[in-house]
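User: Some background: our group keeps a shared notebook of sequences we're curious about, and every so often someone picks one and asks for a predicted structure to add to the entry. Today it's my turn. The entry only has the sequence so far, pasted here. Could you supply the structure so I can complete it?
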Amino acid sequence: MDLDALYMQFALDEAWKYQGLTYPNPAVGAVITAGDKVIAIAAHQKAGTSHAEVLALLCAYENISQTSLEIDPLDAHKAHAFLLSLPSGFFSRCTIYVTLEPCSHEGKTPSCASLLCALNLQRIVVATNDPIQEHSGGLHQLKNVCFGVLQKEAEALLEPFVIWQKRAFVLFKIAQTSNGKIGGGYLSSKTSLRHVHYLRSVCSRLLIGGNTVRTDRPTLDCRFIEKRAPDVMVYSKEDCFDRTIPLFGVPDREVKIGSDLHFLNQPSFVLVEGGEGMLLALKEKIDWVLTYQTPKLSANNLTYNIDMNLSFLHQAKKDVDLIIWSKRID
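Assistant: Of course. Here's the predicted structure to add to the notebook entry:
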């Protein structure tokens, strides 16, 4: 692997940490080098806040100047203003690697393409184009651009964003042991549980099966991160549920019950949690599977007895757990 590909892989790996969490924005990563030394790695973290390029530039500033920032790095407008106030040529010996074409669009955040153009970096390495026509065009504003480094990998990272422009992106969450067992209470580490709650907090709706509600009597909130609980759709042909269970007692959220899945035709991000029955019912509608695999063996009988072909996209560690992103393939 050449250096451009290596640094772009660093940017991709960082972006995967925030996959789904940036909804409705895409997951984007950025790396900045000076010479052959990496001086900053960052990723977009939340919609409406600073983009990956900006966070990486702020980190690079701190490393170059050995000075701590006095602004909130997530405040995009303050961050852009600060970077534009630096002496001319401050980043002139730097190269930035970005997994997605810098945005030309002025919206909740200023244009990253305009910022990079003004900062006059030595090189700008971009993996792939912005698929939204209104946001694209940033490459045409920039000089010294190298395009297409790890483009295929960047497009895989971008797939949820592309899908939820036209319909629901459906992500099925699985927590299991190393021998594929799913029963017996909490299986995942606290870090993994917090990650699930972050996904719940940003998804458009949480979809769960009726049998899970009746058997597990879940809460399905975001208490581990103290965020608003997601709206819930209980997939069931019959409305025969105990309304005193925690699921129905969480304030400021909507719980619907039914078997009509037409809402999946609307642009959105739908997180699915459930057992074998739910996986079978949604088999043809699932886009990706997110697996939290804990390093233990279990004698519990519960598992997923289903045939489904998957393609591994990315894996990383969450505390002791292995987190695996996979795509359903026909």
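Suggested note for the entry: The first strand starts at residue 29 and ends at 34. The two ends are 31 Å apart (CA to CA).
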